[in-house]
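Hi C.,

You asked whether I'd gotten around to modeling the 359-residue construct. I have! Everything is below, sequence then structure, no commentary in between.
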Amino acid sequence: MRYSLSDDQAALRDGAAEVLAGLCTPTDVRAVVEHPDDPTAGRSNERWAALAELGATGLAAPEDDGGLGLGMVEVAAVVMEAGKVALPEPLGIHAGAVVPALVAVAGASILSAAASGELLVAVGGIELDADGPVIEAADGAVVTTRVSHADRAGAFLLATADDDGAAVHLVPASEVSVEMTPSLAASRRLGAVSWTPTPATRVATGPDAAVLIDDLATRLCVVTAAELCGLAEGMLAMTAAYTADRQQFGKAIGSFQSIKHLLADVRIALEFARPAVLRAAWAIDVDDDLQAHDAAVAKSLASDLAVLAAKTCLQVHGGIGYTWEHDLHLFGSRARALAAEHGSAAASRARALRLSRGA
């Protein structure tokens, strides 16, 4: 496989970067963070429409359903660019996980609406464990916690368990109740979704649901890792620019050997993580047997990278980096939050080890 992008993939990435640079500024991201109770603050219908026009929301959807018919490598490349600007919208989750799942379980009208960006579908309940995001409630209802952008979704793809085992439901927004919950990174807009599973909403059950949940979990690892790489690169670029301007002892601090070494460590970690993400995305595209393993490896490397980048860039900025007025925290808080989402670095390494042994 290629550990770099083809010319066409690079052109798609560059197109996304150009759109995002013009429509997603730190001011937009700051508006989301400073107004967590306002679901419209900092968000732009124009920006989402521009990404949809580019084809970003339907990258992995078939052409017959309004998509581009591309794969996870292209999704990962675009999501990295979204990470560079700390995009408030859930492009990676929507394009890289939800839309491919809808190909398998939804009708043409829902899939087309999601691929075109007209319908935002949130996903939740994928990490099914004892402390996971699915909580039993009264009268057959359940509460799915940690659902990203639950307040803006028009529908929900939610996993739970019933008498037949695992199940996946596609639930209209009109049939759920959403309570927003705090997040380390306010731009993530997490919510707890209360809903009642019914036969009418169930789109997969038993072994089919288990396969779908595993695929969603793998894809969520990859798109999260891709976003973390982008966030790290964004912080690194911001810090490099700062070191060129900041003067000490009559010189730019970027000329100091100690500063160079600190930033070089982040760059090296990025150059290890980014190919791992592309490898994991490729493994999904070709349905490789190691795709879950590769996704775990990519997530572990990207989580380590993001934490290192956030810590190092804050250290290099010094006191100004700790202030609310500086844009660094917009990236750092999101990076730290996503580093723990869908498997921390340690959990992802343990999962990769188990999968490598066939467990």
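If it helps when you're writing up: The chain has three domains: 7-119, 122-207, 209-356.

Thanks,
B.
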